[in-house]
Design goal:
This protein is of the alpha/beta class. It has eight helices and 15 strands. The structure holds 8-OXO-2'-deoxyguanosine-5'-triphosphate and magnesium ion. InterPro entries: Aldolase_TIM, Mutator_MutT, MutT-like, MutY_C, NUDIX_hydrolase-like_dom_sf, NUDIX_hydrolase_CS, NUDIX_hydrolase_dom, ThiamineP_synth_sf.
């Protein structure tokens, strides 16, 4: 494999939740396209050092605090880049295009209106997805499920997967419809762990494919304006998720879990090694707690997914 060109780039988000993008010069590589500000690492620089230097040079601001968001390796004809993208949590100054480049604050939902380099698709997904992903656990009645959903939404959960293998298709549809209404009111996103065709009846934000469905599909089963989430357990399933052009994946079990106590966990090192090999936001699932998020960021993951840590009475 060719040595990639190392590039640090910043996802800078303001108090209104808008993202800062800049336009690349027309005569540059990927010229005329929009980008996340940043640039090449100088020799002996770490990603964060390069980020701070480039952002000061290009935008005139000082990064106070940032955390890793996603690392994307991409092969362009004649050039391989490894984009080390950071989420800026605090900065001082007012950004402006110091090199004459147009810069613009863009609403999250409008990012799709701009053309970015091909490498950027996973970055755009990583920016739009939260760092916690709740998967529903057991419930005795739809009322109980809704009550638990409300608790989780109150605690800040903004991405929900309705997993209910105990329900038949009709019962699942009814609960999904109620979940969708509750999620819409809370500005949260709902993914259906169900046949993707159900999206025609329940207009949720996307679907999550379990292992059986992942194996059954050969093409992306949902349109590009819906999320495609995939359950992965090893490199083969992550690669299959990439083939389906999935937007996000869960990788499990990372630790021992109460729901699958007999399955050997992957552990943190395997989590890091596996996600390096795909271009997708990946959530750590299995024996997680919200406090594991910083560790997950450091290893290149999107955040934490869980049943028991979010779905509790
Ligand atoms: N900064 C940035 N670069 C990106 C993005 N997406 C993407 O494919 N790239 C590619 C384009 C380039 O091949 C490479 C960045 O290199 P660059 O030449 O812009 O780096 P630089 O800012 O140090 O530029 P320069 O000082 O050498 O002119 O990464 C992105 O979102 N932001
Ligand atoms: Mg640059």
């Amino acid at each position: 494999m060719p040595q990639p060109l190392l590039v640090a780039a910043a996802a800078i988000i303001n108090e209104q939740g808008q993202v800062l993008i800049a336009r690349r010069p027309v005569n540059a590589d990927q010229g005329g396209l929009w980008e996340f500000p940043g640039g090449k690492l100088a020799p002996y620089e770490t990603g964060l050092q390069a980020l701070k230097r480039e952002i000061h040079e290009e935008l005139g601001i000082e990064i106070q605090k940032a955390r890793p968001l996603i690392r994307v390796r991409h092969e362009y004809p004649g050039k391989t880049v490894l984009l080390d993208v950071w989420k800026v949590l605090d900065f001082s100054g007012e950004p402006w295009g110091r090199e004459g480049q147009p810069v613009r604050w863009v609403d999250m939902q409008d990012l799709g209106d701009y053309s970015f380099p091909a490498a950027n698709r996973p970055i755009l997904n990583a920016i739009r997805l939260p760092d916690q992903y709740m998967v529903t656990g057991d419930f005795a009645s739809p009322e109980m499920a809704l009550q638990r959903l409300h608790q989780a939404l109150e605690q800040g959960i903004r991405l929900v997967q309705l997993r209910a293998p105990q329900l038949d298709a009709e019962a699942y549809r009814l609960v999904a419809q109620q979940f969708l209404e509750a999620c819409r009111k809370a500005n949260a996103q709902l993914l259906l762990n169900a046949d993707p065709a159900l999206l025609e009846q329940v207009d949720a934000d996307g679907v999550h494919l379990n292992s059986a469905r992942l194996a059954a599909f050969h093409h992306r089963p949902v349109s590009s304006n819906k999320w495609l989430s995939v359950a992965c357990h090893d490199l083969a399933s992550l690669k299959k998720a990439e083939t389906l052009q999935a937007d996000l994946a869960t990788l499990s079990p990372i630790q021992v879990t109460s729901c699958h106590p007999d399955v050997a966990p992957l552990g943190w090192q395997a989590f890091q090694e596996l996600i390096k090999q795909v271009r997708m936001p990946v959530y750590a699932l299995g024996g997680m707690s919200p406090t594991d998020r910083d560790r997950v960021f450091g290893l290149g993951g999107q955040g934490v997914a869980g049943i028991s840590c979010y779905w509790s009475s």
